[in-house]
Amino acid sequence: MKKVLIANRGEIARRIIRTCQAQGVATVAIYSDADKDMPFVREADEAVHIGPPPVPHSYLNVEAILAAAKSCQADAIHPGYGLLSENEAFTRRVTEEGIVFIGPTPEVIGQMGDKLTARRIMQKAGVPVVPGGDTPLDNADEAANMAASIGYPVMLKASAGGGGIGMQICQSEEELRQAFQSARGRAKAYFGNDAMYVEKYVDRPHHIEVQIAGDQTGHVIHLLERECSIQRRHQKVLEESPSPFLDEATRNALCDAAVLAGKAVGYTGVGTVEFIVDSQMNFYFLEMNTRLQVEHPVTEEMIGLDLVAMQLEIAQGQPLSISQEDVRAKRHAIELRVYAEDPVSFLPSPGTISLYQAPVMEHVRIDDGVETGTKVTPFYDPMIAKVIASGATRDEAILRAREAMQQFLITGIKTNIPFLQEVLEDDRFIAGEYTTWFIQERKPKSTI
Q1: From CA 84, how far away is CA 87, in angstroms rounded?
Q2: Residue 83, pLDDT above cutoff 60
């Protein structure tokens, strides 16, 4: 592998560039009109303009991306996360063009991209799944019958969904019937697939995911878990590893189940198996993300590995360079996502960053995509940086994260830094006793 085109933007493009350059692999950035002055464009060895700001005309423009790869003679494409990273058709086109896709096969992406198919595969493999249906529901009557058989409350979900879109908690048949058509419409609009299903709603669970890696010989290992329960609108805001909630027996069972899931689909590359865990330590498969996760630095800092380097090795047919016995938690790590958004309403706050000054501290890693003068546009996700603090203990990591957030200075736009500071001071967070309802149930301070 000599040259990698990065089919993404912002902080994840910069992060991939760093590893590629460290390994002597040339990089190609693609960019829209809105991103022409972004740091990732300058830092790549080459950069190709692919279109106007809207993502359908740039970062989702498959033909433009493939043309850029061929014009630069890139022999591989790294999709990052989001955008086309879990698009089966894109992956297939890449491989048909004789270009290496740094990720799993199109077949695995397709299977895991459909939640109903994924449920059936996991059930067959012996991985616990949330009680519910395994076939698409054609109408509200079928949904009501399924809900009655498993008991309320239930979660109405889009089979092709992601990011919380097409999901709704229903406490009664009346709520389910009212929600069915609107949820189905959103699924059709966002994913081009209106298939819906119903599963039992697990109240106030922990959202815990397990990092896995699989090579082309069929060897799959886990890289321990991440606690991802602090979320707003089903989007993660803070992650940490190891989870302060799990006991050792549940941790081992959860990680073993993730490896089982990876082997069930013949997973190659770096991926994530997501679970929900109830208050009694019962866990259930939620979904598999067939890509690098936003929160992958938490695992990197906790274990001491470079997951992008691992992706490159696997994509070139190399066997995993570590065994399961080598995997252990060396430190505790916490990641905070800094967004250009109002810290109270969580609404995006586009504008020009008049001053950007990230903290420089030992054991604090900053993965960012902006600088002073960067224009945060409404075209893309408003996340501008990730702060990853680590320590020998969880308490040490929390203290370091607090200091880092105090030192972070961003002016010209609103950010969620005040909110993140409150989270780090919250008694429930400090005790490690928080669930996915943390944000809804918190009591904001007057400081924001």
Answers
A1: 5
A2: yes
Buried/exposed 214-226: b ≥16 CB within 10 Å, e otherwise = bbbeeebbbbbbb
Residue 196 half-sphere exposure toward CB, CA atoms < 13 A: 32
* Spatial separation of the C-alpha atoms in residues 26 and 46, rounded to whole Å: 8
Q: Which value, to the nearest 10 degrees, does the dihedral of the CA atoms of residues 225, 101, 10, 65 take?
A: -160
What does the DSSP assignment read for 74-89? -SEEE--SSTTTT-HH
Residue type, 136: P
| Rounded alpha-carbon distances, angstroms, from residue 192 to 1, 135, 243 | 35, 18, 36
Cα distance between residue 429 and residue 303, in whole Å: 22
Task: Calculate the dihedral angle through the C-alpha atoms of 336, 337, 340, 346, rounding to the nearest 10 degrees.
Answer: -90
Q: What is the pLDDT of residue 123?
A: 95
Catalytic residues: 291
To which residue do tokens 């609009």 refer?
Answer: 189
> What pLDDT does residue 445 have?
61
- Tokens 């815990």 belong to 208
SS3 content of the chain, % helix, strand, coil (to 5): 35, 25, 40
What is the reported pLDDT for 174?
94
The answer to whether 59 and 35 are in contact (CB under 8 A) is no
Angle separating helix axes 115-125 and 248-264, nearest 10 degrees: 110
Distance, in Å, from the CA atom of 95 to the CA atom of 355, rounded to the nearest integer, reads: 42
Between CA 114 and CA 257 the distance in angstroms is 19
- What is the distance between the alpha carbons of residues 418 and 345, in angstroms, rounded to a whole number? 12
Are 284 and 276 contacting, i.e. CB atoms less than 8 angstroms apart? yes
Mean pLDDT of the chain: 94
Please give the span between the terminal C-alpha atoms of the chain, in angstroms, as a whole number: 49
Burial of 126 (0-12, 13-18, 19+ CB in 10 A): exposed
- What is the mean pLDDT of the segment spanning 398-412? 98
Give the closest residue to 423 by CA, choosing from 231, 244, 294.
231
Q: Provide the residue type at 390 as one letter.
A: S
Strand, coil or helix: 399? helix
Mean pLDDT of 420-442: 94
CA atoms within 13 A on the CB side of 230: 27
